[in-house]
Amino acid sequence: MVPSYKNFIAGQWVDAVSHARFENRNPADTRDLVGFFADSSAEDVGRAVRAAAQAFPAWRACPAPLRGEFLYRTGEILKQRKEQIARDMTREMGKILLEARGDVQEAIDMAFWMAGEGRRLYGKTTPSELPNKFNMSVRMPVGVCGIITPWNFPMAIPSWKIFPALICGDTCVLKPATDTPLSAINFIKALEDAGVPPGVVNLITGKGADVGAALVDHDQVQIVSFTGSTATGREVATKCAPSFKKHNLEMGGKNVIMILDDAELNLAVDGAVWGAFGTSGQRCTASSRMVVHKKVYREFLKEFARRARNLSVGNGMKPRTEMGPIINQKQKDSILNWIDIGKKEGATIYLGGRPLEKGNYRHGFFIEPTIFSDVHPQMQIAQEEIFGPVANVLSCSSLEEAIEIANGVRYGLSASIYTRDVNRAFVAVREMYTGIFYVNSPTIGAEIHLPFGGTKNTGNGHREAAEATLDVFSEWKAIYIDYSGRLQRAQIDVGE
Ligand code: UN1
């Protein structure tokens, strides 16, 4: 029996109004049908948004430390269910079990971090320029948040958005990626079982074009929080612009590892393999460019390729698998198209470059770990996000040149440097215009209590995670209390 899953609106699991459903299959083996999910429409979105709007007044009135208690309970439930949730995740989106567990762990960490925020949500008190006057600022809730999330971190990313929204006193409607509805359902179930009141979180599954667009457009949605492609992010921003709807966007990356001539090469190779091929390169933080000093270029390339060639590619559920499938046929076609573009641009396929389609790979979407060498910084493969297991190796002859190449893209999410020279490391720390920077570690693996996000076309000036994300889900209110009993005029009655 293939299970059939529903939307979650006002505390009830309900079918789409149209009763339409869509299939969700395992990308490692498409014969494996994970389940049927509600193929929703704008009408379903309307119901969910209304439920969230109705729940808002009581939720915002609930003291923040009590809202935090719901998050502590959700975190505990996710901890108990971690293994099963991770297995469901690997089955529906392919990443290896070890990484799926990490994805759930990220949500657990975020639950506890944001639960604690319920007892902080710090504002500021500050002196007034006038006597007998008290100044402070507080965060206030905003309303209904439309949350649109991708398939590559199907639990972590919803948690980065929904937990801070809830702790700020907002209510939410989640629209997860079509490829990963089950992980979203597992997430919402944890919130439901933790006793979060009806309507505070709602879930609508379905296609981006229908559900996502209806959510962004809905006039009762006050904040849109989106993670996904730059093209879709631009559409979200354009839709939000006329009414100045608050929106935060987390989009593409073209992340770089700089490897200098004094780097510990084995460590750099370890980092490059993990950064480029972890999650089959399907992370916005994936290391897709290696800029290597010419003195160590050949040695690095040889060892990097040797290690990548030995990666065991397959079904992420098997304990020995190191790299899983690509999420779907469309994404596989797109990656193969990028590989063609790279060849046409004159880069050398140093390793891989082909789809894996025989034997055990027959029913899934697999591509060999691929390394391009002789890549020029201006080639499209060195400029555009590929979102797959494709690493581009470029050469440089100095730290300055490495930094220039590294910064020379339209994205600014994550970057890293391998060097044993602390002076050179700090120059790179200062000069790289990215939201995240690593020394002697690859570009992936952000921790939840530091701000996450990027510059340039990666985002629109916001950060997720950490305390910074509270700025997305709340508005500041500055409060002045005059207890002098007379009219006091700021800037005027301050004396000479
Ligand atoms: C993403 O790929 O969208 O820093 C998020 C990392 C993970 C999150 C990636 N913690 O690589």
Can you walk me through this structure?
With 496 residues, this protein is α/β, with parallel strands linked by helices. The protein has 2 domains: 7-251 and 459-478, Aldehyde Dehydrogenase, Chain A, domain 1, CATH 3.40.605.10; 255-439, Aldehyde Dehydrogenase, Chain A, domain 2 (3-Layer(aba) Sandwich), CATH 3.40.309. Helix content is 37%, strand content 23%. It is built from 13 helices and 23 strands. It has helices at residues 42-61, 64-93, 97-117, 156-168, 181-193, 208-217, 230-240, 265-277, 297-309, 329-345, 399-407, 422-431, 470-473; strands at 7-9, 12-14, 21-26, 29-38, 124-127, 133-141, 144-148, 171-175, 201-203, 221-227, 246-250, 255-259, 287-293, 348-351, 355-356, 366-367, 370-373, 390-396, 411-412, 414-418, 436-439, 455-456, 474-482. The strands form 7 sheets. Strands 14-17-18-13-12-20-21 form a 7-stranded mixed β-sheet, sandwiched between helices. Strand 3 and strand 4 form a beta hairpin. Helix 8 crosses helix 9. The model has no long low-confidence stretch (mean pLDDT 97). Residues 106, 152-153, 227, 283-285, 444-446 line the site of 2-aminohexanedioic acid.
